[in-house]
Structures are given as structure tokens and as C-alpha cells.
Amino acid sequence: MDNFEGIIEFVSVAESQGFSASAKQLGCSTSHVSRQISKLEKRLGCALFARTTRLVSLTPIGLNYYHQCRDLVTGLHQANEQVTTQQLTLVGTLRISAAGTFAEQQVAPALMQFALLHPELSIEIDFNSRNVNLVEDGIDFAIRYGKLEDSGLVARKLQAHPMMAVASKGYIEQYGEPKNPNSLKNHSCIIANNDHWLFEHDGQPQNIKVQGRWKSNNAHAVVNACEHGLGIAYMPQHNFLPSVERGDLVSVLKDYWHSDSHSWVVYQNRRFLPMRARMAIDYLVENLSKP
Asked: Is the pTM of this model over 0.90?
């Protein structure tokens, strides 16, 4: 049995590319992971990792060894999960990163229902707009919006979010209504996530750089600023509909709104994902894939 000691830690370090990240994944100390790897390397009589002050990478021998060990560890995890699945009990802590109105109004309530179905499961949601590192921050999955970067993560589509441009009646009376996206260069715009707004017309995209006096990554603050007449705002429709229905805001540039924006659930591209994360992701996709 001594021959298997350190294998799980080795595979974890290889996949997370760091001792600290591996320790977070395994729920142990960094020193424990380091000791296990050192014992394994001593037992095998070779170096499995090349270590620098900032990077941990597999040696050629370590890479070959990883390919063999990965299947062993995956098989062990899957065997354990099958037993747990048969008991229909999810335990442990599910950690999610999310931000925005959609996450607050739809993702969080859906996860509350999921928690009620699994009373022994703990859920932690970090509402932060920063682009977290799932491995280093110990996040099971994240909710993201818009165009995704090629990060190597697995992405599953949750819901479409057509865009909408709005302004207050007072702003339009004072500064006029923009006739097309290019005319936004002469207007004050309320900036949410970025200062490049994507429109479309006759199937052709139009990317417009805007500027203004108010910028916030909080949708509620953007809506309030727009209602106070600070400029034109452009976000997914669901943020503005209550204000439009009350008459506090009016739509502009309707013929140019971009319709192909989506929210996503993203997670690590690895063969083994904890069952609690897999089931939660499937639950969100099933319940939130339609408006």
C-alpha cells in the first residue's frame, strides 16, 4: 500500500500546477502536499516536478507518470462517487463565483432550491465581478456573462440576455435622442462592464467606444444613474424593464440592440469534477436555460 502514498497529491499538483492550489483542492496544508510529493519522488528515485519560485511544472518523467496515475485516481474518485450517489446524499461545501443581476435574481434562488434538496450540503456564493482563478481560489464553478475568453474552461450556456439601450426622458429632452450607435460619441454614456458597446444592424456588428461621467460594475447603480439623467445606459434588458414599465426610462437605438449575449456556467476542464458540482451545474442548466 505504501506504493500508492502520495499519488493523489501528485495528480492534484500536476493538474493545479501548484502546491498551494493543490492543498486548497484537497483540504489540507501545503506542507503536507509538499511532504507527500517529496516522499514519492524519493521512493521512485527521480524528480517528478521542476520547481521555480513562481512555477511548478512536470518533468518529462513526471508527465509520463501523471498520464498513468491520472486514470487510477479518476477511477478511485468515480468508485467513491458511485457509492455516494447510491446513498443520494451530497455533502461538503460548494463554492461559486457570480456577479450581476441575473446571478442575484435567478442563480442564487435556484441554488437555494438545490440546497433545500440536499440538506447536508453547504453553499458559498462570492458575488464579485473580478475574473477569479477557479483553482487558486478553490471555486467549483463560476457564473459569467458575455463573450468568453479562450481560457481552457468548460462553458455551458445558461440563458440569452438581449441588450437594451435606455435614457431618462429628462436626458433626451436636454441632449436629444441618438439616431445611430455612432452618434453615441456625442453623448454621455453610463459605463457598466466596459466602454466598448456591441450593436448590430442588418446582421453586421458595430463596436462603439463610449465615454461618460458615471461608471459602475453594479447594475442597480447604473440604472439609478440613468434614471437621474446622467446619460445613456446599455445592458441586458432585464435590468431596465421595471424602470421602462414605470416610465422612468425610455428605450433608444432599438433597431441596433445586440441580441446574442448569454450567461454561462464555467468550470475546470478536468476528468473528475465533484458530484456536488456536477449535480448543481446540471440543475442550473435545466432550470435556467430558458428565460
From this structure: no
How many domains are there within the chain?
Answer: 3
Quote the longest CA-to-CA distance of the chain.
79
- Domain span at 149: 92-160+262-288
Provide the β-strand partners of residue 235: 164
Question: What CATH number does residue 268 fall under?
Answer: 3.40.190.10
Calculate the alpha carbon distances from 41 to 52, 76, 191, 258 in Å.
17, 22, 53, 55
DSSP letter, residue 149: P
pLDDT of 271: 60
Say if residues 232 and 176 touch (Cβ distance below 8 Å): no
Note whether 140 and 30 are same-domain residues.
no
State pLDDT tens for residues 53-96: 677 889 999 999 998 888 788 777 767 766 655 455 778 889 99
With contact defined as beta carbons under 8 Å apart, do 170 and 229 qualify? yes
Contacts of 232 (CB under 8 A, 6+ apart): 165, 166, 167, 171, 178, 184, 187, 188, 189, 190, 212, 226, 252
Q: Which of 31, 55, 87 is the last residue of a domain?
A: 87
Among 104, 97, 96, 98, smallest CA distance to 239 is for 104
